[in-house]
Specification:
This protein is mostly beta strands and 346 residues long. It has helices spanning 17-31, 86-89, 96-102, 129-132, 283-296; strands spanning 35-40, 51-53, 63-66, 79-80, 103-105, 114-118, 121-127, 150-158, 174-187, 194-205, 212-218, 220-221, 233-238, 243-249, 258-259, 271-282, 310-322, 328-341. It has a single domain (17-341), classed as Jelly Rolls, CATH 2.60.120. The strands form 2 sheets. Strands 1, 4, 5, 6, 7, 9, 15, 16 and 18 form a 9-stranded antiparallel sheet that branches. Strands 2, 3, 8, 10, 11, 12, 13, 14 and 17 form a 9-stranded mixed sheet that branches.
Length: 346
């Protein structure tokens, strides 16, 4: 059996033991699998204490993180928001009192950047006007934000020391991620420096070399040109997160992931209403991706054995770039689940 949890379990935001065991038993009975749910998106009663702005996130907590400070508060923190951004995010909260418990934003002004945590759903609306002041710096100075012209507010879960997860230690192991998503708002110029995209990412770490990899599919990018149905791989270093990105477009025939039969695939236009996405990465997929990374980066010291990598965190990399033109992005997500099938060869 592979390592999933350590000696201790907590009732914070972890997937419950009951759910994990039930899923494992049902999966084994139906498919001969040994499924373990390592994270299941929790219900949230209040967003208070769950919003972090450019600071270390608490381990073992489902939280929202802004990569940019608010320019409207003295310390950059977010404030309670009582307007309804449902038209932008798809998550409409009926009354002002509940909104005050479920929403935080750069300022309490309709149309401004906001994030939401309400029950089993999270959401965010990004408006580059909050960071650019409706325009660029006349003197060419970098605008506020990650790398000057990026914006992201993301739901994130970082696994604590009690949760030791090596998804691909077993020869026939498989990592699966599923979620429901809607993206009602996506505005950009669809060119370098003006983008709107969403890529759910798992962070994996090689404990020996400390190399960090952001692994996940290209799920959405606003675009009206080009062939969006063909497989497309991408390996590159991301300086803001100090990690290597391994990404495969979420389409049938992808090399480094498998699209589930009932899953929606890569999207290029905004939509309202829930769409279900589900994909898995086998040990064979992981090996192929790591070997491609070795071929591309021969000087980099890292392991090409998928079994060495430990699952560190999840976040929805839904972001805008707005250097060349303004950008907006509004989304909401529910029912995130991360599971591992630890079958061994028989």
């Amino acid at each position: 059996m592979m390592e999933i949890w350590g000696s201790g379990l907590s009732t914070r935001d972890y997937a419950t033991v009951t759910v994990a065991l039930l899923f494992a038993l049902l999966g084994r009975a139906a498919f001969g699998a040994e499924w373990h749910v390592v994270f299941s998106q929790p219900d949230v009663l209040t967003i208070d204490g769950r919003v972090y702005v450019i600071e270390r996130r608490a381990l073992g907590q489902w939280a929202m993180t802004s990569w940019q400070k608010s320019p409207f508060t003295a310390d950059g923190t977010f404030v309670p928001v009582d307007w309804d951004p449902g038209e932008k995010t798809g998550l409409s909260i009926p009354d002002e009192r509940t909104r005050g418990m479920a929403q935080r934003g750069m300022r309490n002004v309709a149309g401004s950047t906001v994030c939401q945590m309400h029950g089993d759903t999270v959401g965010a609306y990004l408006n580059s006007a909050d960071l650019s002041g409706q325009g660029g710096d006349a003197e060419g100075n970098p605008l506020p934000g990650s790398n000057g012209y990026k914006q992201m507010v993301t739901p994130q879960y970082s696994f604590g020391p009690e949760e030791t997860i090596h998804p691909w230690r077993a020869p026939d192991s498989r990592l699966q991620v599923s979620l429901d998503l809607q993206i009602p708002t996506a505005v950009c110029a669809e060119k370098k420096g003006s983008l709107a995209s969403a890529n759910p990412l798992l962070t994996l770490v090689d404990p020996k070399t400390k190399v960090k990899i952001s692994w996940g599919p290209m799920l959405f990018s606003k675009r009206t040109r080009g062939d969006a149905t063909r497989p497309l791989q991408h390996i590159a270093y991301d300086a803001p997160s100090h990690s290597w990105m391994i990404r495969d477009r979420l389409v049938p025939g992808a090399s480094w992931l498998e699209l589930a039969p009932a899953s929606a695939s890569y999207q290029t236009a905004p939509w309202r209403g829930w769409r279900h996405f589900c994909w898995s990465v086998t040990r064979a997929h992981a090996t192929a991706a790591l070997e491609s990374m070795r071929e591309q980066e021969p000087q980099l010291e890292f392991s090409v054995d998928p079994g060495d990598y430990q699952l560190a965190s999840f976040h929805l990399n839904a972001e805008t770039h707005f250097q060349a033109a303004p950008a907006e992005l509004g989304w909401s997500m529910r029912h995130l689940r991360i599971a591992v099938d630890s079958r061994r060869e028989r």
